[in-house]
Structures are given as structure tokens and as C-alpha cells.
Amino acid sequence: MNNKISSLQVGMILTLLCCSLYLGxxxxxxxxxxxxxxxxSMILGTxxxxxxVLMYLKINDTYPKLNIYEKNxxxxxxxxxxxxxxxxxxxxxxxxxxxxxxxxxxxxxKYLENTPFYLVGILVILVSLVVSFKGIETxxxxxxxxxxxxxxxxxIIELFLLKYVEINNVLPILINNNxxxxxxxxxxxxxxxxxxxxxxxxxxNKSKIKNTKKYNKTIILFYLIASISLTIVMFFVISCxxxxxxxxxxxxxxxxxxxxxxxxxxxxxxxxxxxxxxxxIYTLSIISIYGLIKGLQQYTKNNKKNNVLIxxxxxxxxxLSNTIFGNITNSIIIIKNYYVPFIAxxxxxxxxxxxxxxxxxxxxx
Length: 365
Known about the structure:
This protein has about 375 residues and is mainly α. Helix 3 (about 40-60) packs antiparallel against helix 9 and helix 5 (about 80-110) runs antiparallel to helix 13. It has a two-stranded parallel ribbon. It is about 75% helix and about 0% strand. It is built from 15 helices and two strands.
């Protein structure tokens, strides 16, 4: 292995990341926030989400041989740089906790019913750890395969569901008295749970990427692919079920897959077709662990000690994913009320600070 990755592979990782918080979290919250105007909200959110993507690209161009932790020390000095690094490590930890919770709940509700939470959790973190410890090249190869699998499944699903689309189910729109607030509230949430996740890629040194000439265009393209594809998913769900029925489901994207059958077969194809959502969430957990590894390496040069610390952090994350979020209903309420002000907003503030510093640094040079 030459430890070199391609722009295409990083773009594929970004697409998987942007889709990772959607199932069972963003979809339900978007419907509750934007109601009948959820599709308009997601389109607007796609446009808003380009802002953090462009900011990420600017930061990534500054000191390309350094990862985000080394870059912060270079840009801000040891004291401020280390403070920002701590916040970034916390960011990766929070995203890891959310991803572990999401994947375990989905697996135990649809694939491994009556299986203990922590047993499934141990299996989840073991797989994530093995991949993360292998390094970014392995992560990219697995993400590339995952992206191709997801793309094939998406095409199959949309071809089968096309006959169930009823445009009238999408209407009416703009009927709520507070539709402007609802649309903007949903758009901001969508941008923060989709486009903002590009920030997680800052742990990857740009110097590790081959042929970076078209890197910026590739990242923007794959972001748009992810965001637009999620909007299309929502369109299919709403147009097949209608807004009121969709709002009743925990996993509306999973329920709609039950419409897909092969002749008189009793096979549960929805379990196979829904597998792509697991790949999305797994990518978030793997990139979060990789970000934590790079963060700890900044302060701990001993690899064994670093690995032990990572394992301890992940165990704490697993425990917190079960204790903090509580049952499914409470977890959705917590994410809906606290994700934007206490997770997304601090992430965006840090991203903005890094962007401004990088912008003026490049001007000076």
C-alpha cells in the first residue's frame, strides 16, 4: 500500500457521510419541522449546505501536508490550537456516539430482534475499530465498495417504486401559517445534518490524495449527489404514503421497501434493500474513530497507548449511546431539540474560525 487515495474515493466517503444521519433521525425530524413543505425545505437545505462544503475546501487547501490537528497548531499556536483540537476531538466523539446509537437501534429493530443492545454494540465497534486501525487507504477502499453497492440498490429501489408514485400525495404545500419558519427551520437542520458533515474529512491530509487538481469539483459533485438523492428518497416516501401516513412511521424508508416484491415470493426483500443505510452509518462511525485516532496521535506518540485510549473512548461512547438517549422516542426528541444548537452550531463556529484564519493565511502567502 502506498498510502495514497483518490479524489473519487474521498468524494464517495462524503456521500456516505452525508446520508448517515438520515434514516430514523433526519427524516423524522425534517417531517416534524417542515411538515408538508419538507421537500422545499430539503432543496433549500441543499443550497445552504454548500456553504460549509466550500469552507471545508478552503481549509483543506491550507497546509495540505498537515491534518486538522497539526494545522490548528500551525495556524493558531499551541495554546489556542490545542483548545480547538479538544473541541474537534469532542465533535468526533459525539458523532461516534450518535452513529453507534443509530446503527444498533436499526439492527436490533429490523435484523436482530431481542438481541441485547450491548452485544450488538460490541460487534459494531469491533468492525469499526478493525477498519479504522487499518488506516485511511483501507477506509477509502471499503467506502468505494459501499458506495457502489448503495448506488446499485438505489437504482433498483427507484425503478421498482416508480409505479407507486402519486404526485397528489405531495400536495398541498405552503398551507401552514408558519410555512416560512418551518421551511427555514427544516433547511437549516438538513444542511447541518448533511453538508456540515464534510468537516469530518479534515482529519485526512490533502497530501495523501492523488491528482488533487479536480478535488474541489469532485467534493462539490458528490455532496450534491448525496443531498439530492436524499431529497429524492423523501419524494418517493411522501408521494407513495402521503405526509400524514409518513409521519406515523419510525423508519418510513424501510416501510416503503415492503412494496417491492418478486412475483409471489415471500422473501423479505426490504431487509436486503435497506442494508445500504447500515453502510451509511458505518461510514460515519469509522470516520469518527479515524478522527479520534489522529487527534490522540497528536498528543500520544506511543501507538499501543493510543490504541488502548481509543478502545476506552469507544466503550464510553457505547455506554453513553444507550444511557443518554434513552428509548427511541426520547432519542428523537433529544436530537431534534439539541442537535442544531449544541452540536451543529459549535461545529459551524469552529469551521468558520478555521476558514477565516485559512483565508487570511493564504492571502499573506
